[in-house]
Write a sequence for this structure.
């Protein structure tokens, strides 16, 4: 079990990591999700022991390892850039952690060949990393992490620089490969859908703070606050600020919107309402849903689905529709928000109401 | 356009002429050199070379030059490697100023340091040894070596260091086994420049030696002044002085371009 207790990392006047506490248990898959510069890499470096926290402590299996140098911790790390030893062959690259440890030749050979087989590197063992494609280089780095049999495996956006197909393939393989070893597996990514595909637990990061940590689906469906909801949404979360008065949300221009029954009991105040792109539609999702007149800005068509960017009363929303939706810019359309899936936040950004799975 | 070859050819002839003339002279007798103008040796003789390679006064000049140059190159590169690593990998108080200050050491003419070195080395019995010259030359070769090596080291991603630490390498083991092979060309270029600057530097080499460790450049000037104008002999000595530099250049020619590309040479 890896525990971070009130860990902070200050660089100059800035706090790169701000009072983070996390407990990751053995044999689990943990995703660090956050935009670039949110502190994912810094947090991983603290977990690995490459950096020392300015305050707080790091514990491993009940022992304080805060000041223990990285060489004496059993960790493996794979970077976003393809980092290998260019002067060594792929074989020697993979064997390197075992060689340092002084393992015997037979054991090393068996381990290297097993890892190479797993990551389809067997034909390239005699080449040097620079003679490989990007995907093969990254797999070499992953193989090195596998043979080490570390108790903490840190993957820092390992698939970000790979082509699409390989990424799909490795994303499926990786958790399985490491699951066997019973290690604590930490995976950093900027992409919400990657977190959802990996499953496990997710910690959302924003400006050096962990905003929420829990089972991935749980964090996605029930964010604690607006920042987490925004971090865990791609395309961006649609939001609108609406003051509630009795049974109505008032809109700019005197119009109003009936408050859905699910939200009838919240107090009268201004709220930030959030909803996912697939909960905005061109057809009423429930009978009697109120139509909102929105102006189309641009339509992105991927083939199986279309993203329609619309503007409503100063708010810019993205609508996800199945199939191809042809709408011209500046066209006016009626759009509907699904009232069953609203995320309601108070003006401080704390969640007031998130959709209940059973009700949905 | 058909005369395109003309300019480079003329230029190269212009460059090669003094070297050719030196070689030409080295195979002539002194009488022929003084006697008149000839494009090639009429009475071809290797007597000058035989004299240099058999007379201890002459060949000891080469040996002492080579010994202090080699000592200096080894010291400079060995000391500069960890220093350059520190400059390239760590931020510490005044690092940038210190780095620049290193370079300014090269701005002072060596003559400035001749007197203090002379006095200092005499006091500790280093005077007239290859070590005296080798250490004196460190004054400008170490900063140069740090400067060049830092450029090469900064081209290696820091993540490689960290990956090695994560793999379990200690710093010395990482440095020798992983890092040095990565900057091998940089070490080659650095060694070359240390070698060159030490090899051509004459003033300190001359002032810090007397008899035992006299460098070849000093032997040449002294011979010229005592036994008249032994021009053939001097030319032969000049040719032999060029050879080591030419050899070293040949071996690192491919790496020097890389050094220039990094803007540090």
């Amino acid at each position: 079990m890896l525990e971070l207790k009130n860990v902070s990392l200050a660089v100059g006047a800035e706090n790169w990591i701000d009072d983070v506490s996390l407990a990751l248990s053995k044999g689990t898959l943990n995703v660090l999700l956050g935009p670039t510069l949110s502190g994912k890499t810094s947090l991983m470096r603290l977990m690995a022991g490459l950096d020392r926290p300015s305050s707080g402590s790091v514990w491993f299996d009940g022992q304080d390892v805060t000041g223990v140098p990285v060489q004496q911790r059993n960790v493996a790390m794979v970077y976003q850039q393809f980092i290998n030893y260019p002067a060594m062959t792929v074989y020697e690259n993979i064997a390197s952690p075992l060689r340092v440890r002084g393992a015997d030749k037979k054991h090393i050979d068996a381990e290297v060949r097993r890892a190479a087989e797993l990551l389809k590197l067997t034909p390239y063992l005699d080449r040097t990393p620079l003679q490989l494609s990007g995907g093969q280089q990254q797999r070499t780095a992953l193989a090195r992490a596998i043979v080490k049999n570390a108790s903490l495996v840190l993957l820092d956006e390992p698939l970000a620089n790979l082509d699409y197909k390989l990424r799909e393939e490795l994303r499926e393989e990786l958790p399985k490969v490491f699951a066997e070893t019973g290690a604590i597996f930490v995976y950093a990514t900027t992409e919400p859908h990657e977190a959802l595909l990996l499953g496990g637990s997710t910690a959302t990061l924003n400006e050096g703070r962990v905003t929420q940590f829990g089972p991935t689906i749980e964090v996605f469906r029930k964010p604690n606050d607006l920042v987490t909801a925004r971090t865990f949404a791609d395309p961006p979360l649609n939001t609108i600020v609406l003051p509630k008065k009795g049974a109505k949300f008032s809109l700019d221009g005197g119009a109003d919107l009936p408050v859905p029954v699910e939200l009838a009991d919240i107090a009268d105040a201004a709220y930030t309402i959030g909803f996912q792109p697939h909960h905005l539609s061109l057809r009423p999702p429930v009978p009697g849903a109120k139509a909102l007149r929105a102006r189309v800005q641009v339509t992105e068509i991927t083939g199986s689905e279309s993203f329609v960017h619309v503007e409503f009363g100063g708010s810019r929303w993205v609508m996800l529709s199945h199939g191809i939706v042809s709408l011209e810019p500046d066209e006016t359309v009626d759009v509907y928000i699904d009232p069953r899936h609203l995320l309601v936040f108070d003006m401080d950004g704390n969640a007031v109401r998130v959709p209940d799975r059973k009700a949905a | 356009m058909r005369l395109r070859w003309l300019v480079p050819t003329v230029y190269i002839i212009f460059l090669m002429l003094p070297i050719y003339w030196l070689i030409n002279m080295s195979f002539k007798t002194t009488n022929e050199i003084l006697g008149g103008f000839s494009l090639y040796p009429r009475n071809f003789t290797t007597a000058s070379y035989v004299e240099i390679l058999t007379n201890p006064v002459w060949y000891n000049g080469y040996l002492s030059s080579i010994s202090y140059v080699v000592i200096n190159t080894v010291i400079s590169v060995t000391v500069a490697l960890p220093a350059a690593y520190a400059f390239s990998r760590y931020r510490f108080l005044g690092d940038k100023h210190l780095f620049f200050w290193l370079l300014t050491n090269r701005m002072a003419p060596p003559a400035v340091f001749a007197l203090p070195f002379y006095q200092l080395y005499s006091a500790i019995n280093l005077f007239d040894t290859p070590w005296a010259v080798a250490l004196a030359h460190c004054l400008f070769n170490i900063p140069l070596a740090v400067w060049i090596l830092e450029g090469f080291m900064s081209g290696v991603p820091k993540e490689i260091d960290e990956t090695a630490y994560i793999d379990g390498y200690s710093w010395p083991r990482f440095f020798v086994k992983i890092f040095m092979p990565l900057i091998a060309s940089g070490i080659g270029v650095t060694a070359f420049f240390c070698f060159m600057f030490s090899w051509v530097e004459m003033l300190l080499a001359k002032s810090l030696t007397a008899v035992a460790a006299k460098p070849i450049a000093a032997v040449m000037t002294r011979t010229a002044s005592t036994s008249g104008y032994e021009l053939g002999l001097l030319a032969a000595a000049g040719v032999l002085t060029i050879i080591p530099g030419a050899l070293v250049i040949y071996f690192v020619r491919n790496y020097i371009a890389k050094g220039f590309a990094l803007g540090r040479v």
